[in-house]
Design goal:
The protein is of the alpha/beta class. Helix content is 41%, strand content 17%. The structure holds S-adenosylmethionine (SAM).
């Protein structure tokens, strides 16, 4: 249930008053049931009787039933503690350290809007080969369309080769594809294929590498469904590329903290820590410095993330420019308001799509 993940901190704040021990010490199935019940009571406005009884009935053990019943009944009677005056991270259910980091960088008001955006339900859409004018248009791309949420699998109602993705991901994929036209591409961190979809339509061929077997399995399913041509999947560590020849383009869609896509990846916020950021930065640096060797002279390197953090974006660009003088930055194309200094810089609620960053470089020699 999306609400229990998105609103976890707010639900825990409400539940903790009625539990005699810390929530983390509870049996995991009891905690999950409490959060589901609390989400129904506080967020979804389910009638108390239905919320409590449905949650309790779903539990197998008698003791667990008793505890969950007692806590949820008290919550239903006494309600959620007042949120006015509560800190932003509690109001909008985000990690405290990340919220503080964003407040010091963006200010309180902008951070509040970002957290609110992250909790909103994302739309579903994609680039349509022959766009249907009955569907709502996207904000930036002519062929991007938004599909109404019906509760059914959206793929069931689509005919044609449509990859469902946020418009920001499509914008980045398109910008890379434009520079890849007719050439060979090595795609690093490729699964499940959101950018492959655009690259393979433009390139001579694409070698798509990802270290995750299960994610590459989804890449293969997407490839079969969407009839990708000229693309080959490889499961391998992108830090140790073992290709002999240079490619006309190396595209790195780097593993990152995902802070630009919390609306879609609502579980990702609970992974945030400074250590996680630092590890991501180290991995991105290694991927950049190792795979750039595989760009043929005159070829292009593109680095992208779905993070909002400077360490993963502009500072990585600076690091790369300082350490590889034979690469010069070139401009990526895209809607004017989303491109700054030739780099794609998309900020979630301001641009009304996911957060995304991309920069491109040409190798001189
Ligand atoms: C941002 S996601 C890629 C999204 C994908 N490009 C798309 O558009 O659908 C990052 C990917 O990096 C992969 N990854 C993480 N570490 C890696 C490594 N050392 N080498 C290659 N891929 C890696 C993850 O498995 C994950 O699929």
């Amino acid at each position: 249930m999306r609400e229990t993940t998105v609103w976890r901190a707010r639900l825990d704040r409400a539940l903790t008053r009625f539990c005699s021990k810390p929530l983390d010490d509870l049996d995991s199935s009891v905690l999950a049931a409490l959060r589901i019940g609390a989400a129904q009571l506080i967020i979804l406005g389910t009638p108390p009787h239905a919320a409590v009884s449905a949650t309790v009935d779903a539990l197998p053990r008698r003791r667990a039933k008793g505890l969950v019943n007692a806590v949820l009944r008290r919550l239903a009677n006494e309600g959620e503690p007042d949120l006015s005056g509560a800190p932003l991270h509690e109001v909008w259910s985000h990690p405290e350290a990340l919220t503080e980091r964003w407040v010091s960088r963006f200010g309180r008001e902008k951070t509040g809007k970002l957290l609110e955006w992250n909790n909103s339900v994302p739309n579903i859409g994609g680039c349509f080969p022959g766009p249907d004018d009955n569907l709502e248009k996207g904000k930036y791309l002519d062929d991007y369309r938004i599909i109404e949420r019906t509760g059914e699998n959206p793929l069931d109602s689509i005919t044609g080769n449509v990859y469902l993705q946020d418009e920001a991901a499509a914008i980045t994929g398109r910008a890379a594809a434009e520079l890849a036209a007719g050439g060979s591409v090595l795609e690093i961190a490729a699964a499940p294929g959101g950018k492959t979809h655009h690259l393979q339509a433009a390139a001579k061929y694409v070698v798509s590498v990802d270290s995750s077997f299960s994610r590459m399995h989804r890449w293969r399913e997407n490839s079969a469904r969407l009839r990708w041509r000229n693309s080959i999947p490889v499961v391998a560590d992108g830090k140790m590329p073992s290709f002999r020849n240079g490619f006309d383009m190396v595209f790195i869609d780097a593993p990152c903290t995902n802070t630009g896509v919390y609306r879609r990846r609502c579980d990702a916020r609970w992974k945030w820590s400074n250590e996680y950021l630092n590890n991501s930065v180290i991995l991105q640096r290694e991927l950049l410095l190792s795979t750039c060797k595989l760009v043929a002279p005159g070829g292009i390197l593109i680095y992208s993330t779905c993070s909002l953090e400077e360490e993963e974006n502009r500072l990585q660009v600076e690091m790369f420019e300082n350490s590889r003088k034979n690469f010069q930055r070139i401009s990526l194309s895209g809607p004017a308001e989303l491109v700054m200094d030739g780099m794609i810089c998309i900020f979630p609620f301001e641009h009304q799509v996911d957060g995304m960053f991309a920069a491109a470089f040409r190798r001189d020699h």
